[in-house]
From TrEMBL, chains A, B:
It comes from the Bacteria. This is Type III pantothenate kinase. One of its GO terms (biological process) is coenzyme A biosynthetic process. ATP binds at residues 5-12, 91.
């Protein structure tokens, strides 16, 4: 069984053993040879998904939530977890709170690379690389640190505020990096596929 | 006496009574008829400033700081204040801490409109206007609020963390909006000109 999560920049595949990525352009040229169970947030990919081997499982992700317009990728990640704060750190970072299988709410902030780029676009003087070893306990004393601190500190503070002793599940490209700032953190790059797999398991008689 | 602060997008003038702005393109076509005491962070404007009526006062802003490469606009704003947290909220937001006339350090985060644009660029689904009336005490339940919360909450939390009962001086385009989240806030759109004026007053015999 192959699962596929189609995002804004990549399509990620999982065959139960390994994960691999295609860019959206590569995905548009990809021809499936077996059933692909997918979720998609990218309007550009819709035409491609008319092939009958692509099976949309979004309606089987029955997340208990009052949130209006929750992206199906966020719903899938949350569907993998019963209790805790879920941080999906990609080009955007979503923070979602789950309690007893219910989605309590969440919000969206720009991701690390997105924020760095937005600062670089303001002025060539801010066109500096991220210092990933920044000490968050000291006020910065040079521009590179001022930017790095200004990117990482708000993210870490927000996560800290919302976790309040709950387990924090990190996923996404920057999930592993951010997880290192927290003792009660679990980094799980497969979270979205676990949520998708749960939806498929609950609907085996229809889907398989 | 006319003061001028040349930034990345605008040049702001102050004649002791009123403030007015020119875009950088307008500034490049502007011909001074009297002395203009300026600070500048925009490399594009350098050529224009060769006119002898433009007087660079940056070397007279003698801020006590160990920060390496502090922008002269940040230094000028800090030079106006002896004690407190200074938040200059424009396309970037700078936070700087002053204690007994010494600059303790500071950092840089993207501004409100910069962050909104960076989210909008990630996905058309995030292309939504800011909800400026967002309730920061409730977890968002729809995408527009999730974005608005994700933009405003980290800024307000950071400022709150760093102010710790100190007076917070807000300036810049979004300064007035952000100041409303704090009881110990002073909004002063003239802060940069107050710092520049202090430097001129301290060096009257040379400059005037």
């Amino acid at each position: 069984m192959i699962l596929c999560d189609i995002g804004n920049t990549n399509a990620s595949f999982f065959d139960g053993r390994r994960v691999w990525n295609l860019t959206i352009d590569e995905f548009m040229a990809y021809e499936p040879t077996e059933k692909i169970y997918y979720i998609n947030v990218n309007d550009k990919a819709e035409q491609k998904l008319l092939n009958h081997l692509f099976i949309d499982i979004s309606s089987y992700i029955k997340l208990n939530s009052t949130y209006i317009g929750l992206g199906i990728d966020r719903a899938a990640v949350c569907y993998a977890i019963n209790n805790g704060l879920i941080v999906d750190a990609g080009s955007a970072i979503t923070l979602d709170l789950m309690a007893n299988g219910c989605h309590i709410g969440g919000f969206i902030i720009p991701g690390i690379s997105t924020t760095l780029k937005s600062l670089q676009n303001i002025s060539p003087r801010l066109n500096l690389p991220l210092n990933t070893n920044i000490d968050l306990d000291c006020l910065p004393q040079r521009t590179q640190d001022a930017i790095s601190y200004g990117i990482i500190k708000p993210i870490v503070s927000l996560i800290s505020d919302f976790s309040s002793q709950k387990t924090i599940y990190f996923t996404g490209g920057d999930g592993e990096f951010l997880s290192k700032f927290f003792s009660q953190a679990i980094y799980d790059r497969m979270l979205i596929f676990r949520g998708m797999q749960r939806a498929i398991n609950e609907n085996k008689e229809i889907l398989c």
